[in-house]
Amino acid sequence: MADRISQISSHLSPSGGLLSGQVAIITGSGQGIGAEAARLFAQEGCRVIVADIDASKSMSVASAINSSAGGETLALAVPGDILNDDYINDLVKKAADFGDGKINIIVNNAGYTWDGVIHKMTDKQLSTIISLHSLAPFKLIRAASPYFRVKDSRPRCIINISSTSGIHGNAGQANYAIAKAGVVGLTKTIAKEWGPAFGVRANTIAFGHIATRLTQAKEKGAFVTGPGGEKIALGIPGAKEQPTGSDVYADIPLRRPGTATEAASSILAVASPLFGYVSGQTIMVTGGRNM
């Protein structure tokens, strides 16, 4: 699908793309799936707010997008901590200013894992991950509600990123599973509350095994700095690089993990008019896993 999106984009100017004239906030877009989504959205004519806790990565993504836009400013970096209420309010204000008073799309993508088995998981592990993956998306949506509860027939949609852990559970991820299950319920509530009067679409995308820093070997040393300055290791302990078709992917019909670009392409598809009559759904992007 990524190749197809690239083919479409190559024949469309920013003023004629699938998201032409729209404005999107994409959280966690300094790298990985979020950064790819920001690039694809901009290619389709969308003005994008690159929101990430890492300021240098945010600015790098926004700069690369604008450099490729032929002189048009399609991206604005607004870095900050999504767990900070003041930042959420500032993010919404700057997005609306950048969008000349409108916001059309929110992609709640920011997050990381802080794994532990149930009997050893701390309250801080539990509360941090729930705050990051459930409360922060809710607060951002609530803060942006004046720009979505509008009767002007313009397209507006909210995409909450979940995981198969939130659908099926996963050993060692009780906190993540609770949080990711929560956004599924949030999505359906938005669709039921804001769909009838305002035409707002809301959908969840639940990713399976996507090749990102969250699924690479923990031994590679990726980490984030959590509340209080804790160094939180990311990845899967003992995971090894495996060739395509290895038995390690035997439970995935496509026999490989997805790429960040493939994951981002699914976000673009759901945000686009191609999914204009799809709302309140959880779309599984798993290569066929768990079907």
Automatic annotation (TrEMBL):
Record-linked PROSITE patterns: ADH_SHORT
UniProt keyword Iron-sulfur present: no
Tagged with keyword Ribosomal protein: no
GO MF entry, a single one: oxidoreductase activity, acting on the CH-OH group of donors, NAD or NADP as acceptor
Keyword terms, alphabetized: NADP, Oxidoreductase
InterPro entries: NAD(P)-bd_dom_sf, Sc_DH/Rdtase_CS, SDR_fam
PANTHER family: 3-OXOACYL-[ACYL-CARRIER-PROTEIN] REDUCTASE, SHORT-CHAIN DEHYDROGENASES/REDUCTASES FAMILY MEMBER
Signal peptide: none
Source organism per UniProt: Zalerion maritima
Stated name of the protein: 3-oxoacyl-reductase
